[in-house]
Structure formats: structure tokens, C-alpha cells
Amino acid sequence: ILGRYGEIYLKRNTKLEPKYINRLNSLGYSGIYIEDDISEGIEISEIVDTKIRLDTVNKVKDIYDLININKKKLFSNWQELDYLTSNIISQMSNNKNVAYNMLYIKTYDDYTFSHCVNVALLSTLVGIELHMSRADLIDLFKSALMHDLGKVFLPIDIINKPGILNDYEFAKIKQHPLKGYEFLKEENYLSMKGCRGVLMHHERYDGRGYLLGAMKDEINLYGKILSICDVYDALTSDRTYRKAWSQLEAIEYIMANSGQMFDPEVTKMFLKKIAPYNPGVIVLLSNGFKAIIVRNNEELPLRPVIRIFEENGSRVDSYEVDLKNSNHFLNVTIEKEVEI
Questions:
Q1: CA-based angle 230:235:236, to the nearest 5?
Q2: 332-to-214, 285, 303, 335 alpha-carbon distances in Å
Q3: How far, in Å, are 166, 252, 260 from residue 256 at the CA level?
Q4: For the chain, which terminal residue's Cβ has fewer other Cβ atoms within 10 angstroms, N or C?
Q5: Cβ–Cβ < 8 Å for 126, 141
Q6: What is the pLDDT of residues 162-221, one digit of tens each?
Q7: What is the pLDDT of residues 53-102, one digit of tens each?
Q8: Do the bridges between strand 290-295 and strand 334-337 make them parallel or antiparallel, or are there none, so unpaired?
Q9: What is the pLDDT of residue 223?
């Protein structure tokens, strides 16, 4: 059954035959939730309403398309986007304890515009953790939505090239932060902080980014936040030239590059809200046990609360373990996500 806003529902006790799985894959879904005795009581919370998120993806697409076609002012479209942004910020502020659920987010296959919204959601979670004001959260969210806007001013064959860019093409691509900054500044849609966030979202903490080669506190806060969120969402998305990384792989990449690519304080706030495992995911432990993720620990994202249901290949009565605090599991780690 296809839901009103694109969600898929299957009847209770439906067997997941290949035809259903193939259909879900073709629609761009990376996974589904199954309620059974193993997952009973595990809450899967969404940080924003599905319809509002999808409406925002579509509105961003409209704006990018209109700018690409005629480069005219977009007053009414900016107003509609402001309305959607305000609703999203309200929902996220009220649900500030909800962790970012990548399985829920990765359900739309239009990469360009979903990527912009994903980066905006990620950035807002970091902004909330940094205790930014509502006005700044709205400005940051809109800055994230528009962070790749400059690409509409570049040759389409370069933007859509599936392989590795040559030096000339990469030099062109590196102009997109400036192109977006200049357009948004002229439109007067974002604050100067927001415009500079767009300009600086490819700068690196160590000064090896582009266009400006800015480093450390020369990069404004929005730019620092957009940088880490942009990289994370790109890594965890399927692209024409590579498969998506797992959340754990992307988190480890972020952690390894703290102080080099990314501001250490922003990285710390990011890791508190973006966990490597989704609740409901099945994992294999280093001691051979299988468990399901129940919830994440903000301070130690690699040590969540789990529910063990299988020991060395044999089903057992399930029991919960907090990997952060359990003395019996101090040396036990999560090896990988698995199927039952």
C-alpha cells in the first residue's frame, strides 16, 4: 500500500518476497521497519513531519529550476520556503532529543534536492546543540538549503559528469560557492552570515579547502557546520561513481578528520546528534552475539543500548545491555550491521 506522502505499508504477516524488495529498491527506499517480538517497544521517531519535509524538497527544486531557467527574482517562492522552514524549525526545536534517523531520511531518490534538505536538517540539529537562537536556526537552515545553488550557474555536463573531473572541470566546480554567494547576496534572502556560510561550505579547518583557503576561525560558524553536514550526507548517499558508505564508516571518517577538515567543537556537537546506528538495526557483536539497537548514547555514539536475542547462533530470551555502562561488555564491540 502506498501512503499519502510516499510511505510504503505492507500488511501484517506479509512475507517479504523478492518482488516486494525489488519494488522498494526501485522507489529509492534503503530499508523498512518491521515490528516483531525482537523489536517490540523500540520507538522510531521522526524529527520532522513527512509531508513538510517532502514539500520542502519540492520547493527547493522549484527554486533551483526557476533560477536555472530565468535567474529572475523569486519573492513569492522565498515566502513559501520561509513558511516551510519556520514549521520545520518549530518541530525540530520541540523534538530536540530525537536523534537523526538516516533510514527515514534516505527515502527519496532525487539526490540534488534531497541532499540540500538533508544538510539543512543535519545543520539544524548541530545548531540546536550549539544553543543558537531561533532566528539563527532559520537562517542556518535556509543557508543549508541554498548551499549548492551556485551549481545552477555552471555547465550542466560538468555537474552531471559521472566520472572523475579533470583539472579544468574541477576548477569550474570550485566556483559554485562564490556563484551561490553572489546571487543570494543580491537577492537579499539570507543574512550576511547565511551568505558567507554558502561561500565557505567547502573551506577546511586546516586551510586546505576552497575557494578562499580560509582556516580555523577565519571560517564563519555556518560554514563550519555546513561543511561537516555536507560531507556526511554525501558519503552516506549512493552516487553514480560509488555506493553509499555506512553510517558508521562516515562517522569514523568525520572523527578522523576532526581538527583537519572539520572544527573540533562543531564535530563534537555533530557526533552527539548523529549516531552511527539507527534504532531497530540488527548488529553482530565481536563476541558472536546478535542484537538490535534500542537507542543511542549521545556521549558515546559507538556504545548504544542494545537488545541481545541470539548467542552464538542460538536464539535466547532477549535482554538489554547498555554498552556504555555494562562491565560485562567492556571489551565487546559492534562489528557490523547484519540481517537476521
A1: 105
A2: 41, 7, 10, 9
A3: 27, 6, 8
A4: N
A5: no
A6: 888 999 999 999 999 999 999 999 888 899 999 999 999 999 999 999 999 999 999 999
A7: 888 988 999 888 888 877 665 777 888 999 999 999 999 988 766 556 55
A8: unpaired
A9: 98
pTM for the model: 0.85
Cα atoms in the 13 Å half-sphere on the side-chain side of 302: 14
Alpha-helical segments (H) within the chain: 18-26, 50-70, 75-94, 102-105, 111-129, 134-145, 156-159, 167-173, 176-187, 192-199, 221-235, 247-256, 264-273
Whole-number Å distance between alpha carbons of 207 and 210:
8
pLDDT at 267 over 90: yes
Give 104's contacts (C-beta < 8 A, 6+ positions apart). 44, 46
Question: Is 316 in contact with 310 (CB distance < 8 Å)?
Answer: yes
Per-position b or e across 243-265, b if 16+ CB within 10 A of its CB: ebbbbbebbeebeebbeebbbee
Q: Which residues contact 50 (CB under 8 A, 6 or more apart)?
A: 5, 6, 7
Cell of 131: 544553543
Residue type, 275: A
* Of the candidates 45, 50, 32, the residue with the CA atom closest to the CA atom of residue 294: 45
- Residue recorded with cell 560557492: 177
Looking up cell 535466547 gives 316
* Helix %, strand %, coil % of the chain (to 5): 50, 10, 40
> Which residue type sits at 324?
K
Q: Round to whole Å and give the CA distance between 8 and 331.
A: 39
Question: Where do we find the cell 515566502?
Answer: 79
d(C-alpha 132, C-alpha 128), whole Å = 6
